[in-house]
Amino acid sequence: MMELINGKAIAAEIKEELRAQLISNSYKVTLAVILIGNDPASAIYVKNKHQSCEETGIRSLVLSFPESLTQAALLEQIDMLNQRDDVDGILVQLPLPEAIDQQAVIQAIRPDKDVDGFHPQNIGALSTGHPGFAPCTPAGIIELLKRSHIGIAGKECVVVGRSNIVGKPVAQLLLRENATVTICHSQTRHLAKICQRADILIVAIGKPRAINRDYVKPGAVVIDVGIHRDNTGKLCGDVDFNDVKEIVSAITPVPGGVGPMTISMLMKNCLMAAILHQLNRVS
Ligand SMILES: Nc1nc(=O)c2c([nH]1)NC[C@@H]1CN(c3ccc(C(=O)N[C@@H](CCC(=O)O)C(=O)O)cc3)C=[N+]21
């Protein structure tokens, strides 16, 4: 029987655990989110983050700016948040307007407030196994596997996609969990054949329903990171769910799979940031 991995339920459980920790230690946690422009998808994600903060007991500040915000003005805002003692985590919602250099913005965020885990210092820490913030979507995938009792050590894991925010960091985390990891991308030859090796197939390519049963070994676990909205507003992933559902042992749905886990891991990183800041204030 195929197992549907309920990311929404697991994410809710994690938020409940975090809330209990927050209350029992009287932690005060604040996340500042910067949202630029009026991309409808970004607005939904930021709203979901804000709502999760409320559920978890985290104070959330949403700073909204018009598409015309200059890079200099954005860097000034980040600098102000970097210095504010009452702000633990900073998240600049991506994608940014064309005129703004994304890398300059990411590097401007204090690494100990970088709850996205996108700063080069946190990326470096991830690849050497040192303490730091892991990116939320990759961390959510590992947590989803662990809480679904799917072993990772020794497994053949194939990651499709090599982005800085999902493909590369999830490969690092899987490696840390002692998996054998293959990363595929747009230039990979014999993609279907390589994917068929996977005990755990992680798909983050950004193409609706691109992965069908030709890419999946019977009994494999499939994690779908993609999220697309068709013209009727219906959501789908990078995996053709209906085509593969009968042959997989477990699969994440879209919506209700990886997406909610991303947000719960953000909440977890915010709590970690707050604990760090509290420690640094008393010392
Ligand atoms: N600095 C930054 N950090 C991010 O973490 C970040 C970002 N920028 N830019 C965009 C991506 C995307 N992302 C998602 C978060 C939640 C859902 C989510 O809640 N998904 C719901 C459905 C939501 C819907 O209705 O669209 C689900 O899958 O069930 C999806 C995607 C975070 N991102």
TrEMBL record:
A Pfam family assignment: THF_DHG_CYH_C
Pathway named in the protein's UniProt entry: One-carbon metabolism; tetrahydrofolate interconversion
Keyword annotations from UniProtKB, A to Z: Amino-acid biosynthesis, Histidine biosynthesis, Hydrolase, Methionine biosynthesis, Multifunctional enzyme, NADP, One-carbon metabolism, Oxidoreductase, Purine biosynthesis
EC number(s) on file: 1.5.1.5, 3.5.4.9
UniProt domain Tetrahydrofolate dehydrogenase/cyclohydrolase NAD(P)-binding: residue ranges: 135-274
Domain Tetrahydrofolate dehydrogenase/cyclohydrolase catalytic: 5-116
UniProt subunit comment: Homodimer.
PANTHER family from the UniProt entry: C-1-TETRAHYDROFOLATE SYNTHASE, CYTOPLASMIC (PTHR48099:SF5), C-1-TETRAHYDROFOLATE SYNTHASE, CYTOPLASMIC-RELATED (PTHR48099)
Protein name: Bifunctional protein FolD
